[in-house]
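Thread title: Can someone regenerate the structure for this chain?

I was given the following input by a collaborator and told the matching structure tokens would be attached. They weren't. Posting the sequence so someone can regenerate them.
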Amino acid sequence: MADDAEFTLFDRLTTVWILLAMVVGVGLGALVPGVSAWLNSVSWSGISIPLAIGLIWMMYPPLARVRYGDLPRLAANRKLMAVSLFQNWILGPFVMFALAWLFLPDLPYFRVGLIIVGLARCIAMVLVWNAMADGSAEYAALLVGLNSIFQMLLYSVLAWFFVTLLSGWVGGATAAQTVPISIVDVAGTVLFYLGIPLAMGYVTRAVLVRRRGESWYEGVFMKRLAPTAILGLLFTVVVMFSMQGGNIVGLPWDVVRIAVPLAFYFVIMFFLSFGLSKRLGFSYEETTTLSFTAASNNFELAIATTVGVFGIASGQAFAAVIGPLIEVPVLLSLVNVALRFRPRFAGKRGAKAEPAPAVLGDPK
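Best answer:
Regenerated them for you:
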């Protein structure tokens, strides 16, 4: 096991490792025959096993760091809960809907794919971005759980509203498409990708704190476990880019057409959420958590929905798959933006006595 200095050096180069992982993934998908098809074929009930391994591995350390005993007290912050619900379930879907129509009026299949991405609120990578930006681990877990519940309740209803009803109003009857999504299917995806790492994190903390104490858990165990989250993220990035490496190289103009509104979406949502949250008086940790939660998306659910409804070779599925490929570099850049804004919050503290320590180290 490397010492703390080595971990610090490794974490300082997080951006470099992620960019290299993206290059490796694209290279594998484009140059090695059969890699993309094999990765897509290794699945269970529509869930990509390699991708699931990476996501669970990536989410486990942040969820093991959460102090679950603090969640009931934090949940009493109705102002923060209300702001998060507004940003995620009203602001986000409408921003993506507007951008999809603005940039892709002539490509309905890509447009629908982006709208579906905008409806899937994040439950995975936000934990990593939030940790890297020194947001609140407890509030991140709480908001991810809140998004999961609302996802199960609202996803199918919002898909009908935005893709069928609202698209029909904007573009006429030919623009409306039906997206049959069952609450059971959404719940299964959410429970798999969030439930497994959440249970692992909760059980790990409960058992080890009881047996070895809080000091040993935070000072020894988490120092060893936390850096492995970056390995899970890098593995996930390689898998995602490998699965679409051929398309990225073979259909560059289509990728650009989809990437532009996506990039605008992530940046707009982050700055709108950050500005609103800061203006409302939230601390840096709370503002950062609210902003990354609002700016991220649940690409696993969006991909599963578009593949299940329109087929794996459809334009809708292609647009959904491009989503995380743009989200990774953009949100990684926004981590550094958030950290640069941190001095402007001097004197403001959140509900916790201390800010949540970053899972992936200090990338500053």
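The mean pLDDT is 83.
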